[in-house]
Amino acid sequence: MKMIKNAGILAFAGCTLINTSLAMAADDSGFYLGGNVGQSVSHLDESGMTNRVSGPGLAITSVTRDNRDIGYKLYGGYQANKYLSLESGWFDLGRFNFTSTTTPAGSLLGNIKVRGVNLDALIRLPLTDQFSVFGRGGLTYAQTRDSFSTTGALALPANASPKKWAWNPKYGVGLDYNLTRAFGIRAEAERYRINDATGSKGNIDLFSLGMTYRFGTEKPAPAPVAVVEPEPVVPEPVVVTPPPAPVKTVFASDSSANSLFGFNRSTLRNEGKRALDKFVESLKGASFETMVVTGYTDRIGTDEYNQKLSERRANAVRDYLVKFGGIPADKITARGAGESNPVTKREDCAGKSGNPLITCLAPDRRVEVEVTATRTSE
Description:
The chain folds into 2 domains: about 1-215, Porin (Beta Barrel); about 245-375, CATH 3.30.1330.60.
């Protein structure tokens, strides 16, 4: 009952923090589940446990330890934005054994098992669109269950099977790598502060590897547009005015005010969002038939990688124009053109490498928005 009560407290606290964080949720937000398994290493004080369990007057001649086991954890979390996540879950750090040889002749055999629940906050640092590092800190409510036996002249302790539930802190660091929009790999190193059930505290480390699954990451399919066949009519003679030529706006990834992305990035920067807002403002009072967003990269990197990067950039601009610019989704398409159609020539950047080459190729890293059949409304 005590475990259920305190587990409920952790769950209530986690829900409260998650509901509070919904107000600041961004496009990176969402719920996820995961599980890790790995090596647990005990740093408990076996000599101290022997003295506390068996009483004073003993001389410990040697201690042999089996302080490694398989540990695992299952968890669920909410990513409030790309920097903050909240997690709660269940962990089992495994079982650890030791044998203390004493004088008078005898030995104490100890067995320790640790498991419990936790509530953590994770602070993330995204390094790329797929890779991030994080640090975590939080609380555990863990049970330590001990079992002791003796041999030789050593008397059996009065309490041979002590156990204890206790709150303690934990912390750790980890790496996340997104295989897809939904699935990711996680590697972690964590330290759990543990009560050893005999009146002292120690640490258990868990080094683990696992998988995570994020909910709500699939993009919804566009709603089908019904096509109604018009009734045939006899056209009246009209003077056909050819539509105006498409109007193309170029947003380049350089240091100017209309820069949309950083080098090797597909996440819109604040100045890029402002540039797109001005572009949408310029369309007010006009109507158009189609809008095509084309993403480009420079020639640094492989063809395959640049093609995917250009597609992510084009989709980021399209999604922003639909979500915040009010552009109808059925009038705008996005495509990636990779490193094709460069603005710069090979001789323009000849002999350059590193940052000077990146700066020289900035005009090639661009997104073009082409508006077709623009006409001013009456």
